[in-house]
Amino acid sequence: MYPPGPAPPPMMLGNMPGGVGAGVYPPLSAPTANMFGNMPGYEGIGAAGGFLPPPMPAEPVAPPQPGAAPDSWVIPALQEDVARAAFKDFANSKCCYGSGPAEEGVITNMEPFNTFRYRLETFTESRSTEMAQKPHEGETADFYTQPAPRPWEVEVQAPALFTNHTEEKRVPYTSSIKECDSCHSKGTKACEKCTGSGHNSCLKCNGSGKEGEQNCSACNATGKDRCSTCSGRGTIQCNTCKGKKQLLTYVKLKVEWKTQTDTFFAEQNSGLKVDDLSSVSGKELFKYSQCLVYPLHGFPNASIFEASDRLIKEHQTKFAQTSRILQQRHVVDLVPITKVNYKWKTNMHVFYVYGNENKVSAEDYPATCCCVIL
Asked: Do 87 and 284 contact (CB within 8 A), yes or no?
């Protein structure tokens, strides 16, 4: 049962794993990892930890479905002067491109191929645990004073939806104190640079104490320099316990929030590569979010419905087993694409203007040279 009741009396603690007898608590030695084997939610935690299966998800709620395409979904045709200006900017941005085609080419035809882009975003939360330790700085050793909350019961403040974030937290009632093995509870270790002597051979005289026939002035003829790493003490602070002599060991919970995204472009038959469209924005037509979403039945373009149905199933398969799905979101936008045919000298060529940013793609640009930068 959770939340737990009051802590057991001292005599009971003496019979618990990690206890050291009636009335003596906290234990001097930290519990080993397998001692969490009987703790609900931490069975077989081990040193490496691992991702934990989430609670059962809720059922999706049927969203409002998009109907026939309204007039507002139409993107006005690209004007010729805008296309030419974008083409000139494109040519000027390329060090190996001559300006002739962009300046002198004659546009003969402009054809729109505006394309639907569908995006499914799934916002997930995953949790993993592992054994951890840190210098003991006065924290209370609370191991077994109460039953530890299960990993998915630990309260953690979630970020805003669709915001990637990672947080680590010490699980309550899993902390214990142990002596630092690295320094044998001294808080210091022998300095490796001087092997604990506090000094090194003088660099000027190579430890001889002499410079020719004269005494070495750098080391006063001792042949030794004070070690700069330990300031002559011969010891340095233990890096494991930071001089505290003891360590707090505990179960560390790592929580990761991530937006998992997949994108689909409807067939546009313009000849422009789909990869080019990933870097531009379009006109947002439809957005809907819910804990779990349904496919977009009734969307004017059948391929968008099919893509939404397929991607929703894929996201459930990929993410629902190891993560908790907190929110899903459909986004559909219309990406403007214009195929521009132009004539330069005696040949016909093509360039594309796409996205709200009026980016240009012109793979067969006819006036290029090879530049070598030395």
From this structure: no
